[in-house]
Amino acid sequence: MSSYPTTMPPTRPEVSAATPADPRARWAQIATSADHKTIGLVLISTAFGSLFLAALELLLVRIQLAVPENVFLNAVTFDRLLSVYGETAIFLFALPLCIGLFYYVVPLQIGARGTALPRVGQTGLWLFVLGGFVLYASFLYTPPEAGINPLPPLSELTFTKNNGVDVWLASTGMITFGLLLLSIDLLTTLRNLRAPGMAWRRAPIFTWAASIVTWLMVIVAPILLAAITMLFIDRKLDGTFFVGGSGGSPILWQHMSYIFFTAVYMTVAITILAAISEIVQTFTRREVIGRKVVIGSLAAIAVIGTLAWTQNMITAPLPSGWKYFAMLASISLIVPFGLIFYNLIATVSASDFHMRAPLRYAMGALSLASIGLAAEVAQSTIAVGTQLQHTYDAWAATHFALIGFAVFGGLAAVSYWYPKMTGRMLNEERARISFFVMFVGALIALLPLFGAGVDGQVTDSYRYVGGQAMDVLNLIAAVGTFILFVGVIMSVGNLIKSRENEAVALPDPYRGDTLEWLTLSPPVAHNFDVLPDVRGTQPMRDIRDALARRDADTGSTAEAPQPVA
Amino acid sequence: MSLFIALAGFIAGLGAFAGPAMAISLNPDAGSPGIDKSNTLHWILFIVAIIAIVAINLAILRAVRPRTRHVASKDAGQKKGTQLKVGVGLAVIALAIFVTSTVFSDQSRVVPVSTETVADVNADKQLEIIATGQQWIWRYNYPNGAFSYHRLVVPAGVTVELKLVSTDVVHGWNVPSLTGKADAVPGKTNAIYFRADEEGVHNGRSAILSGQGYDTMEARVEVVSPDAYESYIDQLAKDIQAAQDRVEKVELSNITDTSGAALTQDAQDKTVKDAKADDE
User: Fold this and answer.
1) ipTM score of the complex?
2) Distance from the A460 Cα atom to the nearest Cα atom in chain B, whole angstroms
C-alpha cells in the first residue's frame, strides 16, 4: 500500500475553473490584488474616467476661445486648465490605456498564468493611481500652470513661485515611474513566460507591439524621470540644471522631455495599430496581409519616430544638423505608417468582414489618424514647420492623430476585448450611435483649427484679438468640441452600462485566433488550466481544427463544444 | 452601410470645407522672399497631404463597402508583389518630399548658428539687430546704440540678422509674414534672417507660453525706406540721450535739494485731509 494519504487532493489539479469565493469586500480585493487582469482593468477604467475629464477640460478651453476677447476664464485659470488637460490626456489617458491593454491582454495572448513580477506591477499600479490623485487633489490648492510641457525657466522657482509646478513634477514622476515598473514586469513576462511553442515568430502582432513598447518605455521613461528630478532639485535645492547662463541650459529640459513625449506619441500609435491588426484579423477571419511587414513597421516607427524628437524643437537655438536629421526621420516615417495602413486596409478590402463595433471604431481611427499624420508630414519640413509650430495647425494635427489613435483606437481595442474583460457583450446599437457622434464631433472640432493655425493663432493664449478669419473658425471648433464631448460621454456610458444588462459573453464570442479567447470570459485567476501547445500564429484556429478532427474521428455528430482551458 | 455614407460625407465635406478655408488663410501676405518660397512649399505639401488623405479614406471606404457577394481572397504571390510596389512607392514619395523641402528650405538653412553663407553674400548690407525678450515685451537694440520697445523698424531691401536673447523665460519671436518662428532662450543666442522688399507693417504674437501676460506680448515690424530708417534711429538715439540727461538732472536735484521731498510729503498730507473732508 502506498503511503500517499487518500484524503489529500491531487498535487496537480488539471481542471479548477471555479475559484473559491473571496469573503472580502470588492474594493479590498482590488486594492490587494497583484493579478494582471485586475491591474489592467484598473488602468483601463482610470483611463476612460480620465478621458471624460480631459474632454471636459478641453471643452472649457474651447468655450473660452469660442469668441475673441472672451471673459469666461481668466489667464491663470486658463493656464491651469490647459496644463491639467495636457497631463490628463497624456499621462492619465493615453499612456495607461496602452499599458493597461498590454497588461491585461498580453499574458493571455502568450499563454501565461500571470506576470513574472506581480508585486512590481502592483507597486507600479498604485504609484500611478497616487500620481493621478495628487494631480486632481491640487484643485484644492494650486494646480500646475506652466503649460502642457512646463518649460524652464518659466517652471523655475523664480518665475512660478506657487507649488503648481511641484504638483506637476510629483504627479508626473509617480505616474511615469509606475508605468515604467509595469513595463518592466511586462517585459520580463514576455521574455520568460510564453507558452510552450510560442516562439517570437508565432507571437501575435499585439504581443510584438507590447515587446516594442515596453522596451521603448524602459529606455525613455528614465530620461523623463531624470529631467523631473533635476527640475525638482532646481526648485527645492537651488540647483541650476536648467538655469541659462549659470552653467545649466533650458534646452536640456527640452531635449529630455521631448524624447519622452515623442516616444509617447509613437507608443500610442504602435499600440493602437497593433490592436487594430488583431481586430481586422478576427473580423475578416484571416491573417493580416504582410504580417511580418506590419511587425517590422511597428518596430521602425518606435526607433525612427523617437529619434525625431528635435522635430518639436525646430524653433530652438540648435545646430542645423539636428533639425535636418529630425526632418529626414519624420519624412521617412511615411514608409512604415503607409505600409501598415496599406496592409490593414487591404486585408479588410480583400475579405468578407463582419461590421461590429470594434471594426467600426478601428476604421474611424485609421480615417482620423490619416489626416493628422499627413498634416504632421507637411509640418516636418523645416521651412513650413517653423511657420506652423506653436499654432493651432500643429495642435490640430497632433490632436487628429491622438484622438484618432487613442480615443477611437482605444475604444476599438476596449470594445474588442470587452467580452473577455467583463463577461458581457457590448451594446452594438449604442456603440454605433456614439461612434458617429464622436466622429462628426472630432471633424468639426479639429478641421477649422487648421485654418485658424495657418491664420496665425498661437496655442496656449487664453484670448485673441477679434476681427480676423479665426473668429468663426474658433466658434465652429467650440461647437464641434461639445459634440465630441457628448460622444465621449455616450461611449464611456456605454462601456459602464453594458457591463450590467447585456448578454453574457461566451469564451470566444468572435471566433478569434489568439490564445486569450481560449480562457473563460472573464478569465479565472490563473488564466489557463491547461497550457496549450502552440504550433502556429493562429493557435485557437489550430485548437478548433483539432477538436473538429477528433469529432470526425469519433463520429460524433453533436455540436462541437467550445474549447475552454 | 452607414459608415460608408458617413465616410463619403466626410470626404465631400473635407473637400468643400478645407479647400476654400485654406485658400483664404494660407499665408496670404508674404512680406519677404523667404516666406514667398516657404508658402510655395506649403502649397505643395498641402496638396500632397490632401491627396494622401483622400486616397487613404477612399481606400477605407472601398474596404468597408457593403458586400453583395463573396470576395475572393488574393493569393500569396500577388500580395508580395503589391507590397513591394507600395513600399517602393511610399519611399519615392518620402524622398520626393524630402528633396522638395530641402530645395525650398534655404531661407531656413540660415536660421541656425552657422551664418557664413549669408554673411558673405550680404557682407556690406547686412544689418544686425538684437531682440531681447522679457516678460512681456520685446526690446530691440539697433547698431548705433538706440533701442526701442515693442516696435522694430527695419529698412526695406536689406537682410536683417535678428539676434534673439532673453533675460527671463523662453519667448517665441513670431512674425509669420516675414519669417519663421525662433525662440529666445536665456543663456543662448538664436539668430533669424529676413529681408523685406516692400514697405509696410507686419504683426505677430509671441508663440511660447511665457507666463500670465503671454497673450499681450506682440511683435510689430515696420518696414521703411533705408533713408527713413537712418533718420529714425538717429532721432531715437538723440531722444534717448535727451531723456537720460533729463533723468540725470532730476536725480541730481533730488540728491541736493531736500525741500522737494518735504513738498511731496506736504502734498500727501493735504490729499489725506481732503479725502477725510469728503467722507464727512
Assistant:
1) 0.84
2) 6
- Residues B146, B188 share a domain: yes
**What is the distance between the alpha carbons of residues A114 and A111, in angstroms, rounded to a whole number?**
9
C-alpha cell at A29: 480585493
Residues B57 and B98 in one domain: yes
Other CB atoms within a 10 A radius of the CB of residue A292 amount to 10
Residue B133 lies in a domain: yes
* Domain annotation covers residue B222: yes
**From CA A478, how far away is CA A461, in angstroms rounded?**
16
**Strand B159-166 to B171-173 pairing:** unpaired
Same domain for B58 and B12: yes
- Give the total residue count for chain A: 565
How near does any CA of chain A get to the CA of B148, in Å? 24
Helices and strands, number each (H, E), in chain A = 18, 0
The CATH number assigned to the domain with range A38-554 reads 1.20.210.10
What residues make up the domain containing B18? 2-66+76-109
Counting the structural domains of chain B, the total is: 3
**A236, A373 contact by CB (below 8 A):** no
Same domain, B199 and B120: yes
Is residue B71, in this structure, part of any structural domain at all?
A: no
Distance CA B133, CA B136 (A): 7
Closest CA to A476 of B17, B264, B1: B17
Q: Which of A277, A303, A275 is nearest to A289 (CA)?
A: A277
Contact A382, B105 (CB under 8 A): yes
- Give, in order, the Cα–Cα distances in Å from B262 to each of A239, B257, B276: 47, 10, 21
Partner residue facing A250 (CB), from B60, B186, B214: B186
- Residue in A315, A352, A435, A443 to test binding to B, most B beta-carbons within 10 Å: A315
Q: Is residue B253 in a domain?
A: yes
Is A151's CB within 8 Å of B208's CB?
A: yes
Q: In B, residues 3-42, which contact A (CB 8 Å cutoff)?
A: 3, 6-7, 10, 13-14, 17-18, 21-22, 24-27, 34-35, 37-38, 41-42
State the smallest CA–CA distance between residue B273 and chain A in angstroms.
38
CB A43 within 8 A of CB A100: yes
Distance CA A43, CA A373 (A): 27
* B196 and B94 co-located in one domain: no
Query: pTM here?
Result: 0.88
Alpha-carbon distances of A329 from A269, A380, A381, B98, rounded to whole Å: 16, 9, 10, 10
Residue B162 and residue B212 in one domain: yes
Run of H or E residues at B22: helix B2-25
Does one domain contain both B251 and B175? no
pLDDT in tens, chain A (565 residues): 444 444 444 444 445 556 677 788 889 989 899 999 999 999 999 999 999 999 999 999 999 999 998 889 988 999 999 999 999 999 999 999 999 999 999 999 999 999 999 999 999 999 999 999 999 999 998 899 998 999 988 998 888 888 899 999 999 999 999 999 999 999 999 999 999 889 999 999 999 999 999 999 999 999 999 999 999 999 999 888 998 777 889 999 999 999 999 999 999 999 999 999 999 999 998 899 889 999 999 999 999 999 999 999 999 998 888 888 898 899 889 999 999 999 999 999 888 888 899 999 999 999 999 999 999 988 888 888 888 899 999 999 999 999 999 999 999 999 999 999 999 999 999 999 999 999 999 999 999 998 888 888 898 888 888 877 788 889 999 999 999 999 999 999 999 999 988 888 888 899 899 999 998 888 988 888 888 888 889 998 888 888 888 878 776 555 545 566 5
B142 shares its domain with B90: no
